[in-house]
């Protein structure tokens, strides 16, 4: 099959002359309590200019209007049938799949059947009763159970496992009319930041096929970036939706803990796990979140608070005045910028901050001193819970079953073969942390840090409408770059894990590129992380939407997959 | 070190006698009789193997526990009955270990914040004396599945083993006592009182053979006066309270013997099983160090809140605890032996209370309930709840006898029919219909006696001549003539009077 390679060489070749005026370095930010006006910085930035640019300025104009609304419109106006829409996405899915490897399972036939059913229904009953996601082709991360559709969580031990029930989020998407096109790849049991820990395949970053899409929801992010479907569900325990969204240049939302039911999400760290959407457009992610959010009898930790329609009332770009964020207070988390953050990421982030300021927001820095303690605390809590959550994969009732001379051997053989090195590493860490004599020093201490982190976050959000930070210290890794060094990989979660510890909602919106960062000089996407108040998804999404709709330097699509 | 051959060591028996004391604590798992399991909606009713299962209790990927409110309420009732403090906030924890009957690889339990703590109950020994036993705590947890082994009693060594997950996730209340008991009898009294409380509260059917209550007994022995506890041994597998008593008595003796013979170190911290046929305990497994269950707070379940409201609701709805029933019966001046039996089983006390409530004298009601009715239930293997004889009917019978309307003898005579459902229209109507009303009218009795005396002149003559034994003959004739309906006391009085008159009348003839 002939396809253009996923190279965006022409972008990098044009970058030299397209440096945007408004940017600054993280070094300057660190010392400043307020953002320094960009013109003051001009002189000191010469050395970093070559790293920074606006790739989108060179990219073809892209629409930032909702794909879901478009589908709704097309179905209602009979411009396209559901079968046509589905076929179009399936075609793109199949075409991109050999290079990107986003999916573990492709459910083309059931998707077609669902599309035919929808068309029949429209023919019979008209379009007045169409659900909000009717006919929208979506992918589901393989950590979420899908009734009758193989669900592996990217792990060998669950190869061939077919759930008898739908995860609540999946059931709600189906009820909202969505058409499932398949299950997206991820690190086994969501343990990883690259999809390299998937027992099935390594997903490629559509922007640079030599790079990872991030993880663990790498397949979900790559599928959206490569336009294999309109949106996907991911799960986020320490950044698993947001970091891949950042790596792949898409929107990803981790809702408040408890906003979306975890029922049917194969558990990694139960007190941290969140289900959320990935999409190319904020409004689409908001539409998906509206469908899946809400209390659930099957999850005692889900919140019964009423759900808002997060997409309703999002302002049209054309209706915005010049300062739509006037009066909004936005805090830059001081500890997430500066040393350790790649220059390209810093620059894109700084520019995003400037942009928010230009929209009228009052942007300042806020210090969260406990931030750095969050990462080790996160790894203690997540692995402790994981060590327990994964005990059920014992070969007795489902999944991989290895015979043994006795029960011990059955366990050892099954788990030895069914769980990969990264999974075993985390089980061992968690088991150690919970062991008698170590509990107080690790698990209990980590919970104390968690409380501290949460307290600081809440205090900062009492003073601010939202907090922002980069989504990760770097743009997409090369395949193999961090996989061999777990600690290096864990460090990449620095900016995202604290929100899981605090249970707060956070989203990533594309905010530019690291120009020439790719293996062959392609631009690599950079995302802006926006953090909202607990159950403040509506405000957070509105902010992300305004940013997206007014930002002419962030959007773009990987060249090879248009 | 070798002992010099010429040194004679004092025999053990010659050492000064040391008194030993046993210290016994009991852990009991009570299966709470909720309709559905603790954390899923599967039924708890009896069913074919693996019929009562769902993705949640089979621990399928992605499933989450949600607490059954009934479990919470039952735990609160139990806590109140055990006079525990009910924690307004407690939490669930995971107790982790691998075993094929444990689907999740951990058991949801409560580790350091149990819902109930610090209680006390009054137990009664067979002689009627009481002991107070402290309740350390009671907490909610879930049961595991059941393993069926082929080719061995245990998983290890079996050809294959099958798992039935019907029981997995069934709610349990683990009740831990203070080490307050000192003998097998005290332990058995505690265990039976605990069972009684749980049954009275409606939390379990209390069938030991069905595993509704499972007792683990911890036994250690120390020199009397010694504060420090000896090495404790856990004894399991006792299917009755008498088995528990025997198991403990054996275990105490075994440990005391080891102490006395200087082999105290041979008492190992182990789990022993009771072999009923041999009345002995034997080693099941020796605990190698402390098992590390890696407890940590269950993140899938929010903190468990118990409102004052809920506690008040349950308090109001709560049935009487057995000790209160016993006190109530003592206030009725019932003998203590009767009290123990009446207050032992819910159906009996329910029946007895209903009889008394219907107006019967407690003492007389107790006699009937503990006598004829108890014998009948045992014989026909039914419960007092199944009796066709309504308590009100029995009360009517008891009163009719007390009032002299019918004789006690007639009462016993008609009881079998009443137990078959006779007398539904009221005992008096029944007696009338059957012509069984006692003759208590003095005039009628006098006529009766006159007739009998007149019909037996020879015997009367002999009686007057001094054969006083014939009194019995007349009484018999009279009962026969009255078809047993004559009020025996009154009849006796009339007969004696008439005979005396006859004697007086006969005297002048002799002189």
From TrEMBL, chain A:
Positions of the catalytic residues: 141, 216, 240
Keywords assigned: ATP-binding, Chloroplast, Ligase, Mitochondrion, Nucleotide-binding, Plastid, Protein biosynthesis
InterPro entries: Amidase, Amidase_CS, Amidase_dom, AS_sf, GatA
Keyword check for Nucleotide-binding: yes
Main location: mitochondrion
Position of the signal peptide: none
Reactions listed under catalytic activity: L-glutamyl-tRNA(Gln) + L-glutamine + ATP + H2O = L-glutaminyl-tRNA(Gln) + L-glutamate + ADP + phosphate + H(+)
Top EC class, one word: ligase
The Amidase domain, residue ranges: 84-538
EC number from the UniProt entry: 6.3.5.7
One of the Pfam families matching this protein, by short name: Amidase
Subunit details: Subunit of the heterotrimeric GatCAB amidotransferase (AdT) complex, composed of A, B and C subunits.
HAMAP family: GatA
Note: This protein may be expected to contain an N-terminal transit peptide but none has been predicted.
Family named by the database record: Belongs to the amidase family. GatA subfamily.
Name recorded for this polypeptide: Glutamyl-tRNA(Gln) amidotransferase subunit A, chloroplastic/mitochondrial
Name of the gene this protein is made from: GATA
UniProtKB/TrEMBL annotation, chain B:
Residues annotated as domain Asn/Gln amidotransferase: 350-499
Transmembrane annotation, as ranges: none
EC numbers for this chain: 6.3.5.-
InterPro entries listed in its UniProt record: Asn/Gln-tRNA_amidoTrfase_suB/E, Asn/Gln-tRNA_Trfase_suB/E_cat, Asn/Gln_amidotransferase, Asn/Gln_tRNA_amidoTrase-B-like, GatB, GatB_Yqey_C_2, Gln-tRNA_amidoTrfase_suB_CS, Gln_synth/guanido_kin_cat_dom
Reaction equations catalysed: L-glutamyl-tRNA(Gln) + L-glutamine + ATP + H2O = L-glutaminyl-tRNA(Gln) + L-glutamate + ADP + phosphate + H(+)
Superkingdom of the organism of origin: Eukaryota
Compartments in which it is found: Mitochondrion; Plastid, Chloroplast
Entry keyword set: ATP-binding, Chloroplast, Ligase, Mitochondrion, Nucleotide-binding, Plastid, Protein biosynthesis
PROSITE patterns: GATB
Primary enzyme class: ligase
Pfam family, one: GatB_Yqey
Family matches, as PANTHER family: GLUTAMYL-TRNA GLN AMIDOTRANSFERASE SUBUNIT B MITOCHONDRIAL AND PROKARYOTIC PET112-RELATED (PTHR11659), GLUTAMYL-TRNA(GLN) AMIDOTRANSFERASE SUBUNIT B, MITOCHONDRIAL (PTHR11659:SF0)
Described purpose of this protein according to its UniProt entry: Allows the formation of correctly charged Gln-tRNA(Gln) through the transamidation of misacylated Glu-tRNA(Gln) in chloroplasts and mitochondria. The reaction takes place in the presence of glutamine and ATP through an activated gamma-phospho-Glu-tRNA(Gln).
Summary of subunit composition and partner proteins: Subunit of the heterotrimeric GatCAB amidotransferase (AdT) complex, composed of A, B and C subunits.
Family in the record: Belongs to the GatB/GatE family. GatB subfamily.
Protein name (record): Glutamyl-tRNA(Gln) amidotransferase subunit B, chloroplastic/mitochondrial
């Amino acid at each position: 099959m002939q396809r253009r390679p996923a190279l965006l060489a022409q972008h990098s070749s044009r970058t030299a002359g397209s440096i945007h005026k408004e940017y600054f370095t993280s070094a300057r930010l660190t010392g400043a309590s307020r953002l320094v006006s960009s013109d003051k910085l001009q002189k000191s930035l010469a050395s970093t200019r070559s790293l920074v640019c606006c790739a989108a300025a060179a990219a073809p104009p892209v629409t930032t209007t909702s794909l879901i609304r478009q589908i709704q419109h097309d179905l209602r106006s009979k411009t396209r049938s559901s079968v046509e829409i589905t076929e179009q996405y399936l075609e793109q899915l199949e075409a991109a799949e050999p290079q990107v490897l986003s999916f573990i399972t492709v459910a083309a036939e059931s998707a077609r059947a669902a599309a035919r059913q929808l068309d029949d229904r429209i023919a019979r009953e008209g379009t007045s009763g169409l659900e909000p996601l009717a006919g929208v082709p979506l992918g589901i991360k393989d950590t979420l159970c899908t009734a009758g559709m193989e669900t592996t969580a990217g792990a060998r031990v669950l190869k061939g496992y077919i759930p008898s029930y739908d995860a609540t989020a999946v059931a709600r998407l189906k009820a909202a009319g969505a058409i499932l096109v398949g299950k997206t790849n991820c690190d086994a049991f969501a343990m990883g930041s690259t999809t390299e820990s998937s027992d099935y395949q390594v997903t490629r970053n559509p922007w640079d096929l030599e790079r990872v899409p991030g993880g663990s929801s790498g397949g979900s992010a790559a599928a959206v970036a490569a336009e294999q479907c309109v949106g996907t569900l991911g799960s986020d325990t320490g950044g698993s939706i947001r970091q891949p969204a950042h790596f792949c240049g898409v929107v990803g939302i981790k809702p408040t803990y408890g906003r979306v039911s975890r029922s049917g999400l194969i558990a990694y760290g139960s007190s941290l796990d969140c289900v959320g959407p990935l999409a190319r457009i904020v409004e689409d992610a908001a539409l998906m979140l509206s469908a899946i959010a809400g209390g659930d009898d099957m999850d005692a930790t889900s919140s019964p608070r009423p759900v808002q329609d997060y997409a309703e009332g999002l302002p049209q770009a054309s209706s915005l005045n010049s300062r739509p964020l006037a009066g909004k207070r936005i805090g830059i988390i001081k500890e997430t910028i500066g040393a350790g953050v790649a220059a390209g990421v810093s620059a894109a982030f700084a520019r995003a901050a400037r942009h928010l300021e230009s929209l009228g927001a009052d942007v300042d820095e806020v210090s969260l001193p406990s931030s750095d303690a969050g990462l080790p605390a996160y790894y203690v809590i997540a692995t402790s819970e994981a060590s327990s959550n994964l005990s059920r994969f014992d070969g007795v009732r489902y999944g991989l079953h290895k015979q043994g001379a006795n029960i011990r051997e059955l366990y050892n053989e099954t788990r030895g073969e069914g769980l990969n090195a990264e999974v075993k590493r985390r089980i061992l860490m968690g088991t150690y942390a919970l062991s008698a004599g170590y509990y107080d020093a690790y698990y209990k201490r980590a919970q104390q840090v968690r409380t501290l982190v949460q307290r600081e976050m809440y205090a900062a959000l009492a003073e601010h409408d939202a907090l922002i930070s980069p989504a990760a210290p770097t743009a997409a890794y090369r395949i193999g770059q961090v996989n061999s060094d777990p600690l290096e990989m864990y460090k990449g979660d620095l900016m995202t894990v604290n929100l899981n510890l605090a249970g707060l909602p956070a989203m990533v919106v594309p905010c530019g590129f690291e120009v020439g960062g790719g293996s062959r000089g392609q631009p690599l996407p950079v995302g802006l992380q926006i953090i909202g108040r607990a159950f403040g998804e509506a405000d957070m999404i509105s902010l992300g939407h305004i940013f997206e709709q007014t930002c002419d330097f962030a959007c773009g699509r990987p060249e090879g997959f248009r | 070190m070798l002992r010099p051959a010429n040194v004679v060591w004092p025999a053990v028996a010659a050492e000064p006698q040391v008194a030993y004391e046993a210290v016994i604590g009991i852990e009991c798992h009570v299966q709470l009789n909720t309709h559905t399991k603790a954390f899923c909606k599967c039924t708890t009713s009896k069913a074919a193997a693996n019929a009562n299962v769902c993705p949640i209790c089979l621990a399928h990927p992605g499933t989450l526990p949600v607490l059954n409110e009934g479990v919470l309420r039952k735990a609160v009732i139990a806590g109140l009955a055990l006079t525990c403090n009910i924690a307004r906030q407690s939490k669930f924890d995971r107790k982790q270990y691998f075993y094929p009957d444990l689907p999740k690889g951990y058991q949801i339990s409560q580790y350091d914040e149990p819902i109930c703590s610090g209680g006390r109950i009054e137990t009664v020994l067979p002689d009627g004396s009481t002991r107070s036993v402290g309740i350390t705590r009671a907490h909610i947890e879930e049961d595991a599945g059941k393993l069926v082994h082929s080719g061995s009693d245990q998983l290890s060594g079996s050809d294959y083993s099958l798992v039935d997950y019907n029981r997995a996730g069934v709610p349990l209340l683990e009740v831990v006592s203070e080490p307050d008991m000192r003998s097998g009898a005290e332990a058995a009294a505690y265990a039976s009182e605990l069972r009684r409380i749980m049954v009275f509260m409606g939390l379990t059917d209390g069938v030991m053979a069905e595993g509704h209550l499972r007792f683990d007994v911890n036994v250690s022995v120390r020199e009397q006066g010694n504060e420090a506890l000896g090495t404790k041994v856990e004894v399991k597998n006792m299917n009755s309270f008498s088995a528990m008593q025997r198991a403990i008595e054996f275990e105490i003796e075994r440990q005391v013997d080891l102490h006395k013979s200087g082999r105290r170190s041979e008492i190992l911290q182990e789990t022993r099983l009771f072999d009923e046929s041999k009345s002995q305990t034997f080693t099941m497994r020796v605990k190698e160090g402390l098992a590390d269950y890696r407890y940590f707070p269950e993140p899938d379940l929010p903190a468990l809140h118990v409102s004052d409201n809920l506690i008040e609701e349950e308090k109001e709805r709560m049935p009487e605890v057995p000790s209160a029933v016993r006190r109530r019966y003592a206030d009725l001046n019932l003998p203590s032996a009767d009290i123990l039996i009446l207050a032992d089983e819910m159906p009996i006390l329910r029946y007895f209370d209903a009889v008394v409530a219907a107006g019967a004298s407690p003492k007389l009601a107790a006699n009937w309930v503990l006598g004829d009715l108890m014998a009948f239930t045992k014989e026909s293997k039914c419960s007092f709840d199944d009796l066709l004889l309504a308590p009100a009917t029995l009360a009517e019978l008891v009163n009719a006898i007390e009032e002299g309307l019918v004789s006690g003898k007639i009462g016993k005579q008609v009881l079998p029919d009443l137990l078959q459902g006779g007398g539904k229209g009221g005992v008096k109507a029944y007696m009338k219909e059957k012509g069984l009303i006692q003759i208590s009218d003095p005039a009628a009795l006098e006529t009766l006696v006159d007739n009998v005396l007149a019909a037996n002149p020879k015997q009367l003559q002999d009686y007057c001549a001094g054969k006083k034994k014939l009194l019995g003959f007349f009484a018999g004739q009279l009962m026969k003539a009255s078809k047993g309906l004559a009020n025996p006391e009154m009849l006796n009085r009339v007969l004696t009077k008439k005979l005396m008159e006859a004697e007086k009348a006969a005297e002048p003839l002799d002189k």
